[in-house]
Every structure is written in structure tokens, then in C-alpha cells.
Write a structure and sequence with these properties.
By secondary structure, this protein is of the alpha+beta class. 59% of the residues lie in helices and 15% in strands. The chain has 2 domains: 160 residues, Triger factor/SurA peptide-binding fold (Orthogonal Bundle), CATH 1.10.4030; 91 residues, Chitinase A, domain 3 (Roll).
Length: 311
């Protein structure tokens, strides 16, 4: 009996020693409440952070460790809060998200996704579940009460007038050709009533949109020789043939806006988004600060500073 007990005790002691050795080789480098981020997990996150940020310098990556630690701490705080609020994501929801990723993704693209975000399909499922829980928790804790009244929008508009000044702009199309004689033919066709799109398809040599659309430009966006022309011709008119370094252009101003203050009715959505974002940022910061008081946080900087992606 004594020998048997000795064997049992020895086995238990050996297992405890092995566990202790494992913890020593792979300690918790970040503890948030009951959650433990082990050194190997942090190393994987650091490698992915380097890949996604295109950071190849070890010194730069070392300086960015503090950013990664903050991100991990915030994630774990939110996940701890999610547990107390019984916020979950079902397997069915994960299946739907996975199907959305897999559909239309060829093997090469899937391998790229697995390299950048996850290391396996199971890892991808865990990644999607974690992000979904975090987003759902933030939605519930931070976004629910965000509401911007018309009075707040009007007040912001009146107090920030300079933000809504818009310079003169033109919605611009063109036909671009490299041969002067083809440019003359194109201009004759345009002025005889042939549509811009038809002329672009027949004569155009620009790699841009086949419709001839260039974009909306304000003064200062275009080369001076082009700007002087397009800001002087009326709406829905064609320019003369303009000779540039690249070739010959015929410009068409589809729409022109005069300089001035954007009306409140047009600025309202922009203001609403801006104020909503500000409220969200303030609410989120307060939410995180509250969680930091609720859960203990420990960071083992000696172990973190020793982590290298070149190991």
C-alpha cells in the first residue's frame, strides 16, 4: 500500500512539474480577468500584425507591440463582458458567414485569406465567432442610444460654416485620341449630335471608363491648361481640341457647381454621420474605461519584449 501511494504521489508530482515547466516555457503574457493570452498566442498575433501592417523592420515591430497589447486588452475586456451578458453567436450564424466567404472564392484567394487572417478553416471559424461576439457586444453597449436631433444638426451647421464651403466644381467627360485628324473627326461627330459614348467607343484611346467619364474636379485638381478650358465653357458644351503632352482631348462639362456654402438640407447627412461617430467614440472610450475598472489587467512586458517574429 505504501509503495502504491508513493507511485501515485510521484505521478501527481511529475504531472505538476510538467505543467509548471510548460507554463514556464509558455507563460501568460497578458491577463484580463479570467482570460490568459499565452506567449505563443501573442507571437502568432504579432506575426499577423506584421503581415497586415506590412512591417518588416524588427525595431518598428517592437515599437508597435504596445499598440497590439492595447488591442488585445480591449478585445478581452469586451469578451469578458460578453460572457456576463450571455452574448453569443450560434453555429448557424457562423455557417452563414463561412458560406459567404467561401462562395466565389477560388483556392488561391482562400489560401491568401487563411494566411493573412487565419491558419485553418477551424481557425477562421473561431476568428469570425470572436469578431461577431465583439461587434454584437459593442452594438449593444455603445450604439443603442445614439440619436442626433435636427436641432443638433442645425446648431453644428451654424457653428462650423467654413466646413461646408464648396469651391466651384465640374463633372467632366472627355474623348482622348492620340491622332490629331481623328480628334477633328470626333469633334465634328459630337457637334453633329452623335452621343459622347458612341464617339468614345469609336475613337477613344483612354484606358479609363469607356463612357468617357473623368470625375468631378475642383480648381487645382487639373493641369492649368486643362483647368482654364473646362472652367470657362458652359454646361453641356464641348471644348475645342486641346493638345496636351499625352495627346488630344475634347472635354465635355456635364454639370457645374458654383462656389458657395453647401445648403443645410444637403449637409445634414454629413453632419449626422460626423456627430454619430463622435458620440460613438466617446461612448466606446467610456465603455472600455469602465471595463478596465471592473476586470484586472496584467501585462508581462519582459516576456512580450522578448517575443520576436524571427524566432
Amino acid at each position: 500500500m505504501f509503495i502504491k501511494r508513493c507511485v501515485i504521489y510521484s505521478t501527481v508530482l511529475l504531472s505538476l512539474l510538467v505543467s509548471a515547466c510548460e507554463r514556464e516555457r509558455n507563460p501568460c503574457v497578458i491577463k484580463v480577468g479570467d482570460a490568459c493570452i499565452e506567449k505563443t498566442v501573442f507571437k502568432v498575433r504579432l506575426e499577423r500584425f506584421a503581415e497586415e501592417s506590412l512591417i518588416s523592420s524588427e525595431d518598428m515591430l517592437h515599437r508597435m507591440k504596445a499598440v497590439l497589447v492595447d488591442n488585445i486588452v480591449e478585445e478581452q475586456l469586451i469578451l469578458q463582458h460578453a460572457l456576463t451578458g450571455y452574448i453569443t453567436v450560434s453555429d448557424k450564424e457562423i455557417d452563414i458567414a463561412m458560406k459567404g466567404i467561401m462562395d466565389g472564392t477560388d483556392k488561391k484567394d482562400l489560401e491568401a485569406i487563411l494566411t493573412e487572417e487565419s491558419r485553418s478553416i477551424d481557425d477562421m471559424r473561431d476568428f469570425i465567432r470572436t469578431r461577431a461576439i465583439i461587434n454584437r457586444t459593442i452594438e449593444k453597449a455603445v450604439k443603442t442610444d445614439i440619436s442626433i436631433s435636427p436641432d443638433k444638426i442645425k446648431q453644428y451647421y451654424e457653428q462650423h460654416e467654413t466646413e461646408f464651403y464648396r469651391p466651384s466644381s465640374v463633372e467632366l467627360y472627355h474623348v482622348f485620341v492620340k491622332d490629331k485628324y481623328k480628334a477633328k473627326e470626333a469633334l465634328v461627330m459630337l457637334r453633329s449630335g452623335v452621343s459622347l459614348e458612341q464617339v468614345v467607343k469609336r475613337y477613344g484611346e483612354s484606358p479609363e471608363d469607356s463612357s468617357g467619364f473623368m470625375g468631378v474636379f475642383v480648381k487645382g485638381d487639373l493641369p492649368k491648361e486643362v483647368e482654364d478650358v473646362v472652367f470657362s465653357i458652359p454646361e453641356r458644351r464641348y471644348s475645342e481640341i486641346i493638345n496636351t503632352i499625352r495627346g488630344y482631348h475634347i472635354f465635355y462639362v456635364a454639370k457645374r457647381s458654383e462656389p458657395g456654402k453647401l445648403p443645410l438640407i444637403h449637409a445634414a447627412d454629413e453632419i449626422r454621420y460626423k456627430l454619430s461617430d463622435k458620440i460613438f467614440e466617446d461612448n466606446y472610450a467610456a465603455f472600455i474605461e469602465g471595463l478596465k475598472k471592473e476586470y484586472s489587467i496584467e501585462v508581462n512586458w519582459d516576456e512580450i519584449n522578448a517575443v520576436s517574429v524571427k524566432e
